[in-house]
Amino acid sequence: MLTIKSLTPLALMACSFVSSSVFAANTNNNFLDPLETLNSEIWWKSDGWSNGFPFVNRWEGEAITFSEDQGMAITLSKTPLSDGSSDYQSGELRSHDFYRYGCFEAEIKPVNEPGVVSAFFLFAGPYDKDENSNGMHNEIDIEFLGDNTNAVQINYWTNDDRYENSNEKLIYLNFDASEDYHHYAIKWTKKRIKWYIDGELVHTEKNTPETPTPSAKDSTLRIMANVWLTDSRISNWAGEYTEAGQTPTAYFRNIRYTQGAKCEITPQ
């Protein structure tokens, strides 16, 4: 049985900021990518920068690998830079395009390690926007907190550059998500956001004047996936990482986008 618990909002910057390049929105390019190789027409890797607090790691392209049997692997490793500015590297996959309403799906096997977050999410912000965006922070999340992979956190942010009004919900699972692939999905429409696990609807957020959900009229959104190491100052949220020489790895495969409010969630 899946149950839901509300969480105290955390002002977490669970996204990445890059250059101020402006991209066109994707309006009709449905796709299903098994992630056996990097499809450079759809994706690019974050490489050579860091977000700052609460992220401990920097982003490096080499942290992401692909294979036919496992799909995409994102590995967190202790790889100190010679100048001492960063000890850890990890990876982040980003879509070139920004997407409108539709179904966003992925099969995921997250990291089971305190202090490490595995995420699949939709994002736009002041430095990540399409040509018609309002330039504000909009985000819809599926996140696994490494200290308890028997649960998944969902969240959204609407026109919120200060990260003041998060809407976190913790969904308890009847399995350990880190042990095998399961299917996770977001259905984003004008009227509501729906989250699914293995084809089952687990939570709905309606768009209301009091609690508006992100609007494609304000901003279309990138599709993103990453693994990141949390600062020990937020250990009450995701746990505290212990340096035991491990290289935590999350796996992703079969990322799918289907446009439109009438799209259907399609577990593999």
TrEMBL record:
Organism domain of life: Bacteria
Family matches, as SUPFAM superfamilies: Concanavalin A-like lectins/glucanases
InterPro entries assigned: Beta-glucanase-like, Beta-glucanase/XTH, Beta_glucanase, ConA-like_dom_sf
GO molecular function per UniProt: hydrolase activity, hydrolyzing O-glycosyl compounds
One GO BP annotation of this record: carbohydrate metabolic process
Keyword Signal tagged: yes
Keyword Hydrolase: yes
Parts of the chain that traverse the membrane: none
Signal peptide: 1-24
Active-site residues from the entry: E139, E143
Family: Belongs to the glycosyl hydrolase 16 family.
Protein name: Beta-glucanase
Phylogenetic placement of the source organism: Bacteria, Pseudomonadati, Pseudomonadota, Gammaproteobacteria, Vibrionales
